[in-house]
Amino acid sequence: MLVIDALDEAEHDKKNELLHLIKTDFSRLPKWLKVLVTGRPEVPITESLRTLRPTELDAEGYAEDCELDVEIFLRHVLKHRVLPEHLEKAVMTVARKAERNFLYLYWVRKRLDEKKDTHAIDVEALPDGLADEYNTQLTRFYADGFSDDTSRVLRAIVAAEEPLHVDALPVLSGVNDSMSVLDILSLLFPVRDKCVHVFHKSIVDWLTASPPYEDRMRRAQQKGSYF
């Protein structure tokens, strides 16, 4: 089996060459080779792959299976973090917060790995979903909301159609010391090969209050506007 993860994030210069390759050449692969592709069901992707007659595994359509996968994962990462008699309750609590989103679970595991005391975990205190996770991370550094410089830098990054070169960022954002902002936000906006990347598209969706984060972002703005 060949697994291709996050096909929607392979776009560069308004082109997704990997998507084009799949569309034009994958029908020539041997019958015994199966291909599993993950990604957002964006229109260009679904339309391009339609000719291959793929079997679509929609998360909503397989909600129960996704929930089981979440629970299996959580039992593994929590088994040494909570007392055995509290494990199932902890698994159900975090699973509810995760809403079947493994990116949220990635951040949960990262939080757990950073804790020195293996049993010092209060699952009730974990963020409620991915939107709250992003809000919590930014609140660590910007308890009173974004500064003008931070907002300008983020707007330039979000508006860009491709990763911005660090030398272009001060010009486009109007912030001369834009790298100091990036140093703080490096977990969400890492710099690779002198270009600013977005860790995941959901961060942009959350910052711009795009679906499915419209209501949650409005609630965050009531506490202190970020964007």
Comma- or semicolon-separated keywords:
227 residues, mainly alpha, 3-stranded antiparallel β-sheet, two-stranded parallel ribbon, 49% helix, flat
Would you give an account of this structure?
With 227 residues, this protein is mostly helical. It is built from 11 helices and 5 strands; from the N terminus they run βαβααααααβααββαα. It has helices at 17-25, 43-49, 63-78, 87-98, 102-114, 129-141, 148-159, 169-173, 178-184, 201-207, 214-223, and strands at 2-4, 35-37, 164-165, 191-192, 195-196. A hairpin with a 2-residue loop joins β4 (191-192) and β5 (195-196). It is flat and about 55 Å long. The termini are far apart. The mean pLDDT is 85.
Mean pLDDT over all positions: 85
Low-confidence stretches: none
Give the termini distance in whole angstroms.
Answer: 42 Å
How can the largest sheet be summarized?
3 strands, antiparallel
Count of DSSP E strands? Answer: 5
Kindly estimate the percentage of residues that lie in beta strands according to DSSP.
5-15%
Tell me the number of helical segments per DSSP (H or I, 4 or more residues long).
Answer: 11
Estimate percent helicity.
40-55%
Shape call = flat
Radius of gyration: 20 Å
- Biggest sheet: strand arrangement: 3-5-4
**Order of helical and strand elements:** EHEHHHHHHEHHEEHH
Structural classification? mainly alpha
